[in-house]
Every structure is written in structure tokens, then in C-alpha cells.
């Protein structure tokens, strides 16, 4: 399965791990999965480290995904940490997630530490 979701700290910090061939269906699944799991303020880690291939028209594919668009504008999303995106995924992040606070990390551990710090800074949220 190219997408796996796990709670790092339920219900505040959610990890979405993308692996293998990341097709248009997986892009849509990313949005659907996130939307199905968050209802309260949440901090999201999206790990791209294990992706092997992407659709040719990645940004256009993502722009056509209603679920990804809804996730990218969801009021419960507080911060997103992206792990090891390649240049095409950087462009996707800059386009789709431009209105959300986000950071890119080379290390999953650094991303988790950042999200835990951000979450702890807003305990009553």
C-alpha cells in the first residue's frame, strides 16, 4: 500500500507515509485519509522519502483532487511537516499547500520534534 497513516500522538500529530509508485489515486487517497482522521486541531507529517515514481503532471493531478484541495484548506490543520520531497514535490507543496504553515525537513526525526514542539506550544487548541 503506497499510503500508510499512523498517529504519532493521537489526536494531535498524524503521520502520512507515502511509498512506492505515487499515482493520481494515491494523491486523492492522501487527502481522503487525512480528512477521515482529523476533526480537531492537528499537526501533520507527510513523509515522501520512500516514493519511487510520481505522475507526469503532478501539480495538475493534485489540483484536480477535490479531497487534497479540501485537506489543504481544512480549518483543523495547524502545521504540516514534509519529509524529503524531491523538486517536483517541492513545487506541489508551494502550489497546493501555499496557504498553510509548513516546513520541509530532511529528517523524519527532526520533523516529528518540530511538530511536537508546535503542538506543545498550543496545548488548549
Write structural notes for this entry:
The structure is a single chain. This protein is of the alpha/beta class. It has a single domain, classed as SpoIIaa-like domains (Rossmann fold). It is about 40% helix and about 30% strand. The protein is built from 5 helices and 5 strands. The protein has helices spanning about 25-35, 60-65, 65-70, 85-95, 110-120; strands at about 5-10, 15-20, 40-55, 75-85, 100-105. It has a 5-stranded mixed sheet with strand order 1-2-3-4-5, sandwiched between helices. It is globular.
Name a few traits of the molecule.
125 residues, alpha/beta, Rossmann fold, five-stranded mixed β-sheet
Give a brief outline of the structure.
Helices cover 40% and strands 31% of the residues.
Quick check: average pLDDT? 93
- CATH C-level name: Alpha Beta
Widest sheet, order of strands: 1-2-3-4-5
Q: What is the CATH fold-level name?
A: Rossmann fold
> Rough shape?
globular
How many structurally independent domains? 1
Poorly predicted ranges (pLDDT <50, ≥5 residues)?
none
Strand percentage lies at 25-35%
Helix content bin: 40-55%
* Cα-to-Cα separation, first versus last residue: 33 Å
Instruction: Tell me the structural class.
Output: alpha/beta
Q: Give me the strand/helix succession.
A: EEHEHHEHEH
What is the name of the CATH superfamily? SpoIIaa-like domains
- Number of beta-strand segments: 5
> How many individual helices?
5
What is the C-alpha radius of gyration, as a whole number of Å? Answer: 13 Å
At CATH's second level, what is the architecture?
3-Layer(aba) Sandwich
The largest pleated sheet is described as: 5 strands, mixed
Determine the oligomeric state from the structure. single chain
